[in-house]
Write a structure and sequence with these properties.
Distance between the termini: 53 Å
Strand content: under 5%
Order of helices and strands: HHHEHHHEHHHH
CATH architecture of the largest domain: Orthogonal Bundle
Largest sheet: 2 strands, antiparallel
Radius of gyration: 18 Å
CATH class of the largest domain: Mainly Alpha
Structural class: mainly alpha
CATH superfamily of the largest domain: RNA polymerase sigma factor, region 2, helix turn helix motif
CATH topology of the largest domain: Rna Polymerase Sigma Factor, Chain: A
């Protein structure tokens, strides 16, 4: 049964997953559109020294597609939560795999968040605890940053582009880029702060 784009937009994520499982490409494309910002947000905490953030965004997209194809409503979890877990696991898996292979740029990635055990099922409680720990680490980092750097980091982690951040903080794009580079150096130089138990 063919669905028009205007009809597809009205369906819940869970219904779209069922349609995508039945071969509806429009349903899959709609879910990708809905969750692309989440893909960027999940990939953003990982800085690649000498690498391109597009590599991690691509890995995050693989995680989203895996979530769309493997989602089971019977697990009693919302698609959004399941998708976030799949996206984050795919990114962590790529970083771990790259550390064992020849992909040097990924070897130097610095995550803001503590690594979680790589597995397909993470409970909502574990996801909540992980987010709380991430917020605590970001708060500690925030105390080491200037006001501009804190504003830029907040926007950056929300998935905004440099141009969008520039508009938010009222500074030129070059100033935003410089602030991001300073933040990266502070994160890399003080990474021990993030490994506290």
């Amino acid at each position: 049964m063919s669905k028009t784009t205007s009809q597809i937009n009205k369906y819940s994520d869970e219904v779209l997953c069922a349609l995508a499982a039945g071969g509806c490409r429009d349903a899959e494309e709609e879910l990708v559109k809905r969750y692309f910002r989440q893909v960027r947000i999940c990939a953003r905490p990982y800085f690649l020294a000498g690498g391109d953030s597009e590599d991690l965004i691509q890995e995050a997209m693989f995680g989203l597609l895996k979530a769309i194809r493997e989602f089971e409503p019977s697990r009693d979890v919302q698609f959004g939560t399941f998708a976030e877990v799949c996206i984050r696991n795919q990114i962590r898996s790529a970083v771990t795999s790259a550390a064992r292979s020849k992909h040097a740029p990924l070897n130097d990635s610095v995550p803001f968040e503590a690594p979680m055990v790589l597995r397909s099922e993470i409970s909502p409680e574990e996801l909540y605890i992980s987010r709380e720990e991430e917020n605590e680490r970001l708060a500690r980092l925030g105390r080491q940053l200037s006001v501009l750097e804190r504003e830029v980091l907040t926007c950056f982690l929300r998935g905004l582009s440099y141009q969008e951040i520039s508009g938010q903080v009222g500074r030129p794009v070059k100033s935003v880029d410089n602030a991001v580079q300073r933040i990266r150096r502070k994160v890399a130089g003080n990474f021990g702060v993030f490994s506290e138990s």
